[in-house]
Amino acid sequence: MLVTSPQKGHTMKKLLISSLLLAAFSGAQAAEVLVVLSDANHLDLRDGKVFSTGFYLNELMQPVKKLLDAGHTVTFATPQGPAPTLDASSDTDAYFGGDAAAHAAHKALLDQLALTVPGRSPVISLKRVEQIGYGHYAAVLVPGGHAPMQDLLKDASLGALLRQFHADNKPTALLCHGPIALLSALPQAQAFAAALEAGRTPAKPADWIYSGYRMTVISNEEEAAAQGALKGGLMKFYPQSGLQAAGAQYVQNQAPWTSNVVVDRELITGQNPASAPALADKLLQALR
User: Fold this and answer.
1) What is the pLDDT of residue 29?
2) Average pLDDT of the segment spanning 243-266
3) Over 70: is that where the pLDDT of 109 sits?
4) How many Å apart are CA 31 and CA 51, to the nearest integer?
């Protein structure tokens, strides 16, 4: 079922009914997908600088809309449960291939869900997800934006969830900066992240469940090209380097900013914002 706040119940029930009707007509079996977002509205940079951020509109809403249109239901969660933050820089036609109508449709769905509205957001905490039971969810999706670099990479509750999904071989999809959250599955995630943030290269862990997996994430090349967006700030480390340090086999696209989705066992990763539609399609295939 869709998790709702009381104030938003009527709208969310309509979305649920629509999803179930679509599933009935298509013959598809509806699944519940857990979407995990960051609590953070900023990223701490080097030299004490701070970059305002959150999730990217298209990286969240293109997969969510495809899931709902296919008849599936969605639960939104963050580590602590507050309404997540939209990165305002992503709220443009450019991330929808210049299609103003597509941009408007996905933004309207976000507004309808009231996801970012404090007091009305349907978001629940990862502790509540654990109480409901990981078995309740068929798949997990972690969109990007820089925010996951602030908290998800070292969140113990997310690490527990990912380890269970790995054990159960359930589809685990992450996009752009989102794959950095895979580091949370390390037994010593806090220490590993601290080393990366301090500019050190930590020893490769022997007990990372994703060691040797083929995966992608926004590339060092793309991060360097987009550095101007940080307004003079510098990231403490790049996610590609962080995942490789942990034991990932990194797979990069041939041209920067083009779509690239990598599937290895239960793991589905997308490299950048342009990869959102293809990642959603791969997740839908895995749910069949």
Assistant:
1) 83
2) 98
3) yes
4) 36
The C-alpha atoms of residue 52 and residue 146 are separated, in whole angstroms, by: 9
pTM metric for this prediction:
0.91
Interatomic CA distance for residues 284 and 272, integer angstroms: 19
Q: Are 271 and 282 in contact (CB under 8 A)?
A: no
pLDDT value at position 14?
45
Enter the tokens of residue 236: 């403490």
Q: What is the 3-state secondary structure (H, E, C) of the chain?
A: CCCCCHHHHHHHHHHHHHHHHHHHHHCCCCCEEEEECCCCCEEECHHHCEEECCECHHHHHHHHHHHHHCCCEEEEEECCCCCCCECHHHCCHHHHCCCHHHHHHHHHHHHHHCCCCCCCCCCEEHHHHHHHCHHHCCEEEECCCCHHHCCHHHCHHHHHHHHHHHHCCCCEEEECCHHHHHHHHCCCHHHHHHHHHCCCCCCCCCCCCCCCCEECCCCHHHHHHCHHHHCCCCCCCCHHHHHHHHCCEECCCCCCCCCCEEEECCEEEECCHHHHHHHHHHHHHHCC
- Of the pLDDT bands very low, low, confident and very high (cuts 50, 70, 90), residue 9 is very low
> pLDDT-derived band of residue 3, with 50, 70 and 90 as boundaries?
very low
Interval 33-61 mean pLDDT: 98
